Amino acid sequence: MGSGSRSVNSFTVSEWNDKKVRRVRDSLVGEAPLQIRLGKRLLSVTMRTPGDDLELAAGFLFSEGIIRSAKEVASLRLGDGPGSNKNVVHVELKHHKTLNSRRLKRNFFTNSSCGLCGKAFIEGCCLQGIKRPNPDFRLDPEILCGFPGTLRSAQVLFGRTGGLHAAALFAASGKLIAVKEDIGRHNAVDKLIGWALLEGRIPLADCALMASGRGGFEIIQKSLVAGVPLLASVPAASELAVRLARECGLTLVGFLRGRRFVCYCGEERLGFAPLMR
Fold first, then answer.
1. How do strand 207-211 and strand 165-171 relate by DSSP bridges?
2. Nearest 5 degrees, angle CA 80-CA 36-CA 133?
3. Burial of 91 (0-12, 13-18, 19+ CB in 10 A)
4. Which segments in the chain show pLDDT lower than 70?
5. What pLDDT sits at residue 99?
6. Residue 61 to residues 96, 206, 214: CA-CA distances in angstroms?
7. Topology adopted by domain 32-125
8. Rg of the Cα trace of the chain?
């Protein structure tokens, strides 16, 4: 059994196949808690796949509206947590910042499968000051249909374990810009946004984002904060996600499989006229 501190661990399991049982070694995705500490304050604990932890912390702080740019961060470092595992990210801001007490009443203690569960004020999730994404971004539907295959080929950890979500950035040409993997779909998006933030690529006005998980409300919110004009996902979107995307001018695509997809809003970026709502 692995230590749980790595992205992938190997276990011995029993495989049943057509009445035959055999012992095999199986690769399982790593999962461990990560604390994000802002100064002396414990801000968040999330279950994540170890790796890209600084990007995850940066993306979380940015997509939750705690910071507005990477320039606000004085230091971002990985520190020792309990035992020998590095499961704490310490963040120091350049200037003291009084955080919105009402927003801090939201429960930032999340898990790998749900980002909204347990938050005290659901209305607090819709961050103030979200700008409408680039209206001039255009993407050929034929290129869009190639995203899932490209993403799947780039998922190194998924190829070994079969147990990870992914988020990827694509150019309008279909070129894969970056991909991040995590056991949590929200974490994968935060890692990707954090990478873009630290690379000075925010806003992502000329990129499409593809998520392997459901296009839920919080994924929409994070995409909007990062300036993404088009979000595509393999599963369906939720009702609240569609309402937010329509209100804020995001192109939202779901059921992206093979040569079929559903566009919930923002069809003009895909070159066809929207339906009457």
1. antiparallel
2. 140
3. buried
4. 1-6, 11, 13-15, 17-18, 21, 26-29, 80-85, 97-129, 157-163, 274-277
5. 62
6. 15, 22, 22
7. Ubiquitin-like (UB roll) (3.10.20)
8. 19
Helix (H), strand (E) at residue 264: strand 260-265
Q: Before 141, cis peptide (omega within 30)? A: no
For the chain, give every domain's residue range. 32-125, 141-270
CA proximity to 183, closest of 84, 110, 81: 110
Q: Please tell me the predicted confidence (pLDDT) of residue 48.
A: 87
Angle of helix 239-248 relative to helix 217-225, nearest 10 degrees? 20
Residue 200 burial by Cβ neighbours in a 10 Å radius (0-12, 13-18, 19+): exposed
Residue 238's nearest CA partner among 122, 150, 153 is 122
Length of the chain: 277
Q: Domain spanning 141-270 has what CATH number?
A: 3.40.140.10
Is 114 an annotated catalytic residue?
yes
Phi-psi region of 66 (alpha: psi -120 to 50; beta: other; left: phi over 0): alpha
Tokens of 7: 């992205």
Of 114, 117, 248, 265, which one is the catalytic site residue? 114
**What confidence score (pLDDT) does residue 3 get?**
35
Closest CA to 93 of 111, 65, 72: 72
